[in-house]
Amino acid sequence: MSEVENIQTTAAPLVRMAEIEGRGRALVASQPLRAGQIVLRDSPIIVYSALPLKQPPPSQQQQQLHSSNYYYCSNCFKILQPWTTAAASVVSCPAYSASPGLGGGYPHDAHALFCNPNCRSLALASSHSPWVCEALTRLSDCPSLLLHQERQVQARFLIAAYNLAVVSASDFRTLLSLQGDSPAQPEDAALFLHSVISSLCPPPQSSAVFGFSLGLTASLLAKDKLNAFGLMEPFAQDRERSVRAYGIYPNASFFNHDCLPNASRFDYVDAAAERNTDIIVRVIHDVPLGREICLSYFPVNQNYSDRQRRLREDYGFTCECDRCKVEANWSDLEEEEDGDEEAMDEDWDENMANKDIEDACGVTEDNDFPHAYFFLRYMCNRKNCWGTLAPLPPSDSNPSCIMECNVCGSLKNEEEEEAIEGSLEAGVVLENPFSLSLIGLGIRGG
């Protein structure tokens, strides 16, 4: 059975694989879909930490700007909180001598902490094998590797991938089948990392069936670049949000990009009791039979030039979606809009109206922009968020009026919002301004 046929049988029945001219393999609706329907729930074949192997303690300024001073379970990647009673169950890898304590926090360069003994047992039998533990320890002591934080994360992926070849050859074959071809000439990162791994921690002989080689290392890095999904750190309005872990999902990898997506992906890493690293894809509005299901590979508020640059550099293609065709005519305005957007990010107040959301996306009254409705309805207006809103799953075929943000997790009642907007248009002053902060579009979220 081919990999494409295998994907068709294992993906959710609401979507199917199809070849689309100019876009390659894609997932399309196999039946009419209702807003909020879950079209795919996918488990990762690889999850690995996005944190460097070893990093210096964050400065006070870094702590103010970033949320990277969290620690996570090395198996399920839930947040570890040393100041709570839950910290009593935190354990470390048996090979790691230090013991975390409730009061003292965790060692800053720890790469093998687990939220409880069960998570540790699961990891020791799979993702944190003795070879993985030894490899990460040796790599964390490699001076040349520690100079490059990005390559430290790439090294984590390669260790996880070569370990996958040992613990699950079928999953490793699936990984190799995903999009991403190694370049004719290996890039510097592949040359460097292959040399370091082969000298410090060569993979176990049991993975030799796939051949540990520079070409395979380069191919794996290419597949990671094109297919990895980021599992984000907890949202905070006053900090930049970083990635806690990367996962490669065999079915979700086939969703193509659109700058006006009709679906959004959700994860519940800290909230879900089981399968918490799964990603769930829901359509944000009704989708007809045969329509391609698309995600946005980055926040939808980015302007045309930034979107095109990221897609070229990270994914190797130029987007020609409906939105891009319209915005391609706006290039002369973008420098001015970039400055306006930065100012709005710093000064988002209670008087911000719907027009400000349009401006943040490059929309003005003079622009011919037929897609403005998307941003008014499906983009979260909470400060520093810019997430995509999707209805909760319908109940008994009845659509939900509750919209959920896939970034900050806030909920919004569409029916109440429409009532408020109608009242505002009629000149009615509401007595409860707090409700506006929660559900009013264009008004600062709580």
UniProtKB/TrEMBL annotation:
Pfam families found in the cross-reference section: SET
Domain SET: 13-298
InterPro entries (alphabetical): ASHR2-like, SET_dom, SET_dom_sf
PANTHER family (UniProt xref): HISTONE-LYSINE N-METHYLTRANSFERASE ASHR2
This protein's name: SET domain-containing protein
Natural source organism: Nyssa sinensis
